[in-house]
Specification:
329 residues, mainly alpha
Length: 329
């Protein structure tokens, strides 16, 4: 499904972040903190996390309504399968998988649903930046994290401006990409590429309304606050305490870092920034590493297992995922 160079690029970046995460760590102290953690605190964290997944499902339904209204009970398994795909494939391939499964189940075109997923990611990125900006004035951040925040700001604010312009100036956008297709794309591919672009524009429909944009923004805040509450519950399993806004900052930083290509499951790109942020606020590195590793597992495992279960229930095979990229045409 993915080119070999993409796999090795992700593996290399994960290895680099793991080197950052493991430096100056006493692994025996990390193991001791993990062994003595109070794991019962993870259960309410998982519950509130799945509330956030349900909120994600509602947000996606809101974006899909111009194309098709889908009951949340039918859409929820598709969302979970997609997030499972993100956890087991590199390069966020689960987003394409989610669009593919939606077309298979509900007949919504892959290109249109991909547009809604891109919009989701833009709003997620903006909320992550807000979480970071809340804590930034109080945080002496390492240079590499500062560079990441600046780059993410340019990326997500630029993407929002671009997609809102495309959504509002529909006729201008159609002329622009039509002109580009005529001059860049070989003649035999122009019709399918034009069809993909037209369907992608349909997926941006929600950005035409200020009310819809506000709803997407508010829902995104609810989603990420729910995930931060999970960070808070898992923190109680360990012998340290930081203010909630520090966990918001950590959530923002680690999720911005996971937009960088990495190996499946965001190995390294999740862990190194989390350890660094907690260390800045006085948490011992070994304890910060124990917490971050347990948190990472608690975020990864439940939704991945549920995604596997839904795959079986929906009779979706791994072989079909290889067809997902072909379904873009």
């Amino acid at each position: 499904m993915l080119k070999r160079w993409q796999f090795w690029l992700g593996a290399g970046i994960s290895a680099l972040f793991l080197v950052i995460a493991l430096r100056n760590l006493r692994l025996d102290d990390v193991w001791t903190a993990m062994r003595t953690a109070r794991y019962g605190w993870i259960l309410p964290g998982v519950a509130v996390y799945f509330f956030g997944v349900w909120a994600r499902t509602w947000r996606w339904d809101y974006l899909l309504r111009p194309m098709k209204s889908i009951p949340l009970r039918r859409l929820f398994p598709v969302v979970v399968i997609g997030y499972m795909g993100n956890n087991v494939y590199p390069a966020r391939a689960g987003e394409v998988i989610r669009a593919y499964v939606l077309r298979r189940r509900e007949g919504v075109s892959v290109s249109a649903s991909l547009a809604t997923i891109v919009v989701e990611r833009v709003f997620d990125g903006l909320v992550m930046l807000i979480f970071v900006f809340v804590g930034l004035p109080f945080t002496p951040m390492p240079g590499w994290l500062q560079v990441m925040v600046v780059a993410a700001s340019l990326l997500f604010f630029g993407a929002l401006a671009l997609f809102m312009t495309l959504a509002i100036k529909v006729e201008w956008a159609e002329v622009a990409y039509g002109w580009l297709i005529e001059r860049v794309v070989p003649a035999r591919f122009r019709a399918p590429v034009r069809g993909f672009a037209d369907r992608f524009m349909t997926g941006l429909h929600s950005l035409r309304s200020g009310r819809d944009v506000l709803m997407l923004f508010v829902t995104s805040i609810v989603i990420w606050l729910a995930e931060t509450v999970k960070y808070w519950f898992v923190m109680h399993a360990f012998d340290f305490s930081v203010p909630f806004w520090v966990l918001m900052l950590m959530n923002g930083i680690v999720n911005l870092a996971t937009t960088i290509p990495s190996s499946p499951g965001y190995v390294g790109t999740f862990d190194a920034p989390g350890i660094e942020i907690l260390s800045i606020f006085g948490v011992a590195r070994s304890l910060a590493a124990s917490y971050t590793l347990v948190l990472h597992a608690a975020l990864w495992l439940p939704i991945t297992l549920l995604g596997f279960w839904y795959m079986g229930r929906e009779s979706v095979s791994w072989r079909e995922f290889a067809q997902a990229e072909k379904s873009l045409a």
